[in-house]
Amino acid sequence: MPKYFDNITETNTLNQITGEFIVVSDEFKILCASIISKFTFAQNLLQKIIYTTHREKFNNVRTTLRNFPNPRSRMDFLCSYPYGEKDEIIEIVFDFARSIFKEIYEVRNVLTHEIWASATDYPDSILFSNLDENSRLMMASSRVWHDECATPHDVFNATIRYIRNVKIINSNHLRLAIGDIDLCNWCLLNIDNMLNEEDTGRRNELRQSFHIFGGTSHLFKKPPISTDVVEYSSSKKKEITHKN
After folding, report:
1. Whole-angstrom distance, CA of residue 207 vs CA of residue 191
2. In the chain, is it the N or the C terminus that has fewer CB atoms within a 10 Å radius of its CB?
3. Whole-structure pTM value
């Protein structure tokens, strides 16, 4: 996840603006909404693929997903439950897509659960801090007034720890995350379409596309040699066609 944000490493002070006075560009808001929307779409595809490939265990899987105590447990399940069919190519791509999904999940959590702030020193970015770090800082500050053993140095240390854990996210970070989640969704869509395809030839074409497409070809040591041009049709039902 660090590729989706930067940290503050060279300053011991930080002046933040939060609440209604925070400065957030329209572009940043749109990119955030896009990430959350695309992530939810990926989550739905993951669930669908797990249901489809575990037909004989469908009721057990459905019950498990419904009875998770918290959202994190559901995500851990989706990111660890094995692919349900013996297909090495698809299993490799499925695990690759899930690795991206897990990284984007962390970004999505930052955007939705952490405290937003703007700062004049970082005009093109938004600063994020989690509630735990804010709590530690407030507790350290409170001790100076209520604990005779506490010193201003304790507050300083807590402040530095807080600043070092602040995440700086700009539009470039978000565009990078969107590119990755788009790749994740492309993989999952093709897997889903292959599972629903009854024609053996089309299934093989969809499977071969993972060897050819630049986003997934690196997963295979010896991709099949093909002189064909592959076209990807983005429609309700995805198809791979060849032109000689």
Report:
1. 8
2. C
3. 0.78
